[in-house]
Amino acid sequence: MKKAITISVITIIGLLLAVLIFLSIRSSRIVYNNDNAIGNSAGNLNNGGLFCEYNDKIYFANPYDYNKLYVMNSDCTNAMKLNDDSVASINVCGSYIYYVKNNFKQETIGTIFRGQLFGVYRCNLNGESLKALYDSLSGTIALSGNSLYYQHYSDTTPLAFHKVDIAGKKDTKISDTPYSPACVHNGTIYFSDPVGKHNILSYDTKTDKTSVLYDCNSYLADVENGYAYYIDLSKNYSLVRLNTSNKTLELLYGEKGNKVVNYNVYGNKIFFQVESTDGMTGLYRMNIDGTQIETIAIGNITNIHCTSKYTFFQYYEDQGVLYRVSTSGADTSVEQITIK
């Protein structure tokens, strides 16, 4: 009888161990994306990647809590901290959140995105199971399929263009040129060349080939639905768009004495920041064809992030306070929003 009891106990223990091993393997198994998956919009990533909307949730860096990682509903309700990392360049897709960490200090809040970012990290949607895919100085990151493209710092190459797979098993240098991976569209990354004439270039993630999309003097190129939007440095920082099929160029905004220094395209709207010599410095909104220009806020605006319901922004001089406005609604009144 004692022998039978001993065998039963050993059997139960063996089964429990088998279940634990199975659960451990299952929890560590990577859930992969389709080849054209992306993690955030180009406009948001070009603005620091502090907000990212995915499946009716907004994952964001909370300015009221040292830019730590939070999540809330798309209507800004039920905000909740996910972990204690100060984050930027947020990408969300499938089962994971990807981001870079931020050497955040309250006294340097106005300069937190000037060489203070490091690492490429992955965690579950609940903020747990954090894994470092790269753990040194970095810049903007963007998801394309099952790879994260990012700006990589090293002692030999101060800033280069790299990719690392979402499992963190293979890191590859693509170019010594510090291309920004912010704009990902159907497996192709588009960017303004940071050297030379600043042409709009395209990088095919499947073939690893880089080619010229359009010969121009561009800044912050963003390709959306058959158009390439960019700030034209040769036209006094005007905002233009190129029809990528017939190469027709349209002027969207360009007024004497006014320079477009930042923008974000979302749906049928463009939010853009103007620097002006005649008191017109501020945030504006217009249709993607350049019609119906509306004033949103006067002043030096930064961190313009668009989601389906709201567009969030901050004043450059006070980045500890967050504001929102309807992204596409008729009401353009601005609200200060506090998230605790």
From TrEMBL:
<dbReference type="Pfam" id="PF16472">
    <property type="entry name" value="DUF5050"/>
</dbReference>
<feature type="domain" description="Prolow-density lipoprotein receptor-related protein 1-like beta-propeller">
    <location>
        <begin position="40"/>
        <end position="325"/>
    </location>
</feature>
<dbReference type="InterPro" id="IPR032485">
    <property type="entry name" value="LRP1-like_beta_prop"/>
</dbReference>
<dbReference type="InterPro" id="IPR053369">
    <property type="entry name" value="SrfA-induced_signal"/>
</dbReference>
<protein>
    <recommendedName>
        <fullName>Prolow-density lipoprotein receptor-related protein 1-like beta-propeller domain-containing protein</fullName>
    </recommendedName>
</protein>
